[in-house]
Automatic annotation (TrEMBL), chains A, B:
Quaternary organization: Homodimer and heterodimers.
Membrane topology per record: Multi-pass membrane protein
Taxonomic lineage: Eukaryota, Viridiplantae, Streptophyta, Embryophyta, Tracheophyta
Annotated protein name in UniProt: CASP-like protein
The UniProt record lists the keyword Transmembrane: yes
Keywords tagged on the record: Cell membrane, Membrane, Transmembrane, Transmembrane helix
Length: 200, 200
């Protein structure tokens, strides 16, 4: 046997079973991410409240806050992306094919990472705006607005929870695609949990 | 040769050279991250400006904004962590040892991922506060403050740039630790860039 010819399933069914679990998990996560992203867009995008104060009509809507607009756009893009990737995974599963193409693995890995980081950044920025709306920042003369727009703020809160779950799914997906990519550079060593020392 | 006995450097010096480059890159990135994190803490933590408006003294300091406090704390923790990890990498390099311990690789991978995401979230939240300070959000009655505290805002901007570079370093480090971990699950397949299809 030449050094290049390494059996893929050298440890028998264990690796095969793990690959199957990872594949199913990836599809579930991608579709869950898509659903949560759409839910976020729906919750935040339709969020509006009108209050009449001393016969003066005041309206709060999601587009009044830059961070919420960014959140809706990021979730929309990530949902569409996740749907496409989910379908790709399903097709690959039904064909029973395994990803061994490094270029494709790199492309998927890069896109997943960018999506995960952008989504998390959008959630963090929106969370900061929400905290500002709830508690204000009196030192900067930024007053809280949630005592005025209670329903608006509650719905933003629900959207933030769903968006946080969406970004957690995306982060987990990015782990899966990192796994799918970097195992192609595998050494096939260290199957146990003991520590080896190899001279360089 | 039994299936378990796979030569580590089956493709000769190429893998060895790549491993060495990755190791050196990791040390450089960890130390750069540490330096940039400390720079961020110094820039933001010492940022203060006093203005006298109609004989009324007004002071802006970083602790007036929650997001900046969070940024300083996150950068402080990440810098300390990176320093410890950088030293660990240097010791491992001087000993010429290679990481084959799955438990340790998982621990490093998890910590790196958490640090990268927390740091990026802190930067995003602080960026949102900075945009608010620069442009305000008139719909919410949150007025811009940077026309008043120009020097304060400029220094926050410098801190944000350094913090963004720090989080980019941390993100790249998290790729390296994902590489170090998941290659332990390697299939040793797909060295070329062609696509294989294996029945499941």
């Amino acid at each position: 046997m030449s050094p290049g010819e390494v059996p893929v399933y050298s440890t028998g069914g264990r690796l095969k079973a793990m690959e199957r679990r990872v594949k199913i998990g990836e599809v579930v996560l991608r579709l869950a991410m898509c659903g949560l992203g759409v839910l976020t867009c729906a919750l935040i995008g339709t969020d509006t409240e009108v209050r009449t104060i001393f016969s003066l009509e005041k309206k709060a809507k999601f587009s009044d806050m830059r961070a919420l607009v960014f959140l809706v756009i990021a979730n929309g893009i990530a949902s569409g992306y996740s749907l496409i990737q989910g379908v790709r995974c399903l097709v690959a599963m039904s064909r029973g094919s395994v990803l061994f193409n490094k270029a494709l693995a790199w492309a998927i890995f890069s896109c997943d990472q960018v999506m995960a980081y952008v989504l998390l950044a959008a959630v963090a920025a929106a969370m900061q705006s929400a905290v500002l709306g709830e508690f204000g920042q009196p030192e900067m003369q930024w007053m809280k607005i949630c005592n005025l727009y209670r329903k608006f703020c509650n719905q933003v809160g629900e959207g933030l929870v769903s968006s946080f779950l969406a970004s957690l799914s995306m982060v987990t997906i990015s782990f899966v695609s990192a796994f799918n990519l970097f195992r192609l550079y595998g050494t096939n060593k260290g199957r146990g949990s003991s520590s080896y020392t190899v001279g360089m």
